[in-house]
Amino acid sequence: MGVIRTKPSEPLANRLATLRTEFTSLIAEFAPDSVAIEQVFFQVNVRTAMATGQASGLALAEAALAGCEVIQYTPNQVKDAVAGWGGAGKEQVQKMVQVRLNLSTLPKPADAADAAAIALTHLAMSPMGRQLRQAASS
Amino acid sequence: MGVIRTKPSEPLANRLATLRTEFTSLIAEFAPDSVAIEQVFFQVNVRTAMATGQASGLALAEAALAGCEVIQYTPNQVKDAVAGWGGAGKEQVQKMVQVRLNLSTLPKPADAADAAAIALTHLAMSPMGRQLRQAASS
Fold this sequence. Notes:
homodimer; Nucleotidyltransferase, domain 5; globular
């Protein structure tokens, strides 16, 4: 699991440019059919919402431009799908990610665990995921 | 003056992809040295902040990737630079844009007037703008 990092000391536009370049490379490298992104409705504050929007907007646009299916899941959908309960705590979700992916330790950083949880949510909720499970159990 | 429009009926990722494609074409067509973008601190609500962030993030990233100087101005800076007063109303700013750009009518839609106001702000505030005015008046 990898996390794209940018330098907080850099100007915002340059940090977003780095994010865009690295995200585009990842899409080119892995050629995913689907890209699942967290949909955040309620942020602590407007400034956080703006920053989250700036980063997620890039991912949404690039994924769509690459022809990927783009899906957004709310935090509650992720908690529900991964930990079985929409009110599950962050640590429960991380623990479930560890178990489901058979990792020896909790995934770190927490952002990587969140990303893995969203991927697991998509696997659980997408029609293809459902069909694969049906095929596997038949 | 042009405004990039996307269909509200389309999925968010597709709308952002359209915005990204058209913005990239505009940058390629006009090869600007500088791109000035409104910096919105206080939005009516978190959802608006998120949407504004998603659109502005694309512009910030693409402009930086194209090697442009990227500058953000707050609404108050724009009002101050264009109408001479940070507390100026939207209509006063639009009227000043019309006068400054020698337009026969108020620029429409209002978003285009806002964009023109931001460009005028950059012209007034950037060092190059200052130098040009000094050169012209000497």
